[in-house]
Amino acid sequence: MSHSLPVLGLMLGDCTGIGPEQCARILADGGLNDAARLLVIGDVRVLDIGAHDARVNLHWKNYPAPEAVDWSRPEVPVIDLANIDPARIARGQVSAESGRITGEGISEPRIAVAALNPHAGEGGLFGREEIDIIAPAVARAAGRGIRCKGPFAADTVFLKAFAGEYDGVLSMYHDQGQIATKLKGFNRGVTVTAGLETIFTTPAHGTAFDIVGEGKANTGALEQAVRLGARLAAARKRSKLAATAA
Q: CA separation (Å) from 176 to 44, 118, 138, 207?
């Protein structure tokens, strides 16, 4: 495995959902070895359950820290947190204990900002949030050099982005953005948490309790999350090197 590839921490997700199965499957098939060096971070008992669900054999080796990993070895490197015993938690349903444990792709992105109200408020007829809050915020952001426009009516703004006019859409609430994302590609959607020192990506889908343990969870979105995380990490590294050289 090339040592030039970024090292990504692969979290197993909620141990009551399909995350462990998906992680075990992509680790076993090695299909992401060209994108990143994957280091599992979680409880190995959860990883073992995931391997059982995915019907795969995994050989892993525990390490105390990322810096200690020997990437020439064939085993899957793991940092065993030993922080949750899956035998004590019911699978396929919400668990407070499991939930407690579960823990930039473009230089000048063009951002479209969605409106809150229908038809972007119709000049105040359907609400004044666009006039009083959103439009002034967009103007201030643009004044700081951020390439953003809006607010645009939410029922058309995503068409502009899909057509390539914008690189991303800032939506006003969860479903407004997720409906568009999941319609565009349910098994390819990736959530990126911005503003963190560490790059964080995750599949856009949830825990899929209804198919836990059946060995049929699709890994498409997880694979996309890993690949996007690797690209973001590489871009950030290049940016830091350029800043140091300057």
A: 37, 12, 18, 20
- SS3 call for 7: strand
Please give the Cα distance from 9 to 96 (Å, whole number).
23
67 close to 52: Cβ distance less than 8 angstroms: no
Residue type, 6: P
Share of residues in the chain with pLDDT > 70 (%): 89
What is the pLDDT, as a whole number, of residue 104? 41
Residue numbers of the domain that contains 131? 111-179
* Residues 128 and 93 placed together within one structural domain of the fold: no
Cα separation, 30 vs 33, in Å, equals 5
Calculate the CA dihedral of residues 201, 159, 142, 193 and round it to 10 degrees: -10
pTM of the full predicted structure?
0.55
Query: How many whole angstroms separate alpha carbon 62 and alpha carbon 244?
Result: 34
Same domain, 97 and 75: yes
Q: Which of 97-101, 166-170, 202-206, 222-226 has the highest mean pLDDT?
A: 166-170
**20 in a structural domain:** yes
Residue 81 lies in a domain: yes
For helices 19-29 and 44-54, what crossing angle results, to 10°? 70
Amino acid, single-letter form, for residue 141: A
d(CA 28, CA 62): 17
Tell me the backbone φ, ψ of residue 134, rounded to 5 degrees.
-70, -50
- Band of the pLDDT at 162, cuts 50, 70, 90? confident
Residues facing 62 on adjacent strands: 78
150 inside domain:
yes
Q: Do 20 and 64 fall within a single domain?
A: yes
